[in-house]
Protein: Isoprenyl transferase
Amino acid sequence: MNLLEQIKNNKIPKHIAIIMDGNGRWAKKQGMARIFGHRNALTAVREAVIGASEIGTEAVTLYAFSTENWNRPKLEVDALMTLLTKSLKKEVPDFQKNGVKVNAIGRLTDLPKKALETLKEVIDVTKTNTKITLTFSLSYGSREEITSCIKKIATKVKEGVLDINAINDNVVHQNLYTHNLPDVDLMIRTSGEQRLSNYLLWQMAYAELYFTDVLWPDFRREDLYKAIYTYQNRERRFGKTSEQLDGEHEQTT
Ligand code: FPP
Structure:
């Protein structure tokens, strides 16, 4: 049985988050400028999103541009923004064909006007698609998201529309950029780095973390299947014991 057949018969992660790392190193290996790596990253994006959608994953969230990425050389920042704008537009027919609903999280008002307009248009034209939600994290940082969430909640308390004792996990969830997404089940980071880099810290509280040496532009469906296979063969205990989980499993089978 091939890998795809094996993973199809097992529990599929509902929400996969990806830290797409290694574009610069991929380009450097070929003696090219860093942006060459970013341009060659789009095939990997398609493979990951369509691959995940075909096996029934409901949401894929990509770390496309962090709050810290604004500190990169202006030339690279501009090139990334242009790439984002052009590729979003170009992909619309494929989004429609494959039922991809586009979504975005982050401090989106930081984006250049043209990129933001295009993003809003693409979100609007794909809003009734239901096969998979593809979220771009743009000018995103988890600490910024949590800080902004605290401010929103504090304002509601101050205005008297929220009781301080009513603040719980769900209220926090509702005030995060990801309020319309389930928690992350599986986080994949490419290029051999083993860090979270300020990504979805609240949402990944119980996520399985998968690190691969593959550089992002080389990432293909088979790499996604390997990550899912690893996820399926780990035991997610959510704070319980293995024995408790075995008991629950027996009751449901
Ligand atoms: C990390 O590689 C990648 C980024 C900071 C940008 C991610 C952008 C893309 C994948 C381009 C496609 C964008 C979309 C979603 C349309 P790096 O530059 O940090 O690589 P390095 O660690 O090897 O230098």
Observations:
- Residues 173 and 179 are 6 Å apart (CA to CA).
- The longest helix spans residues 74-97.
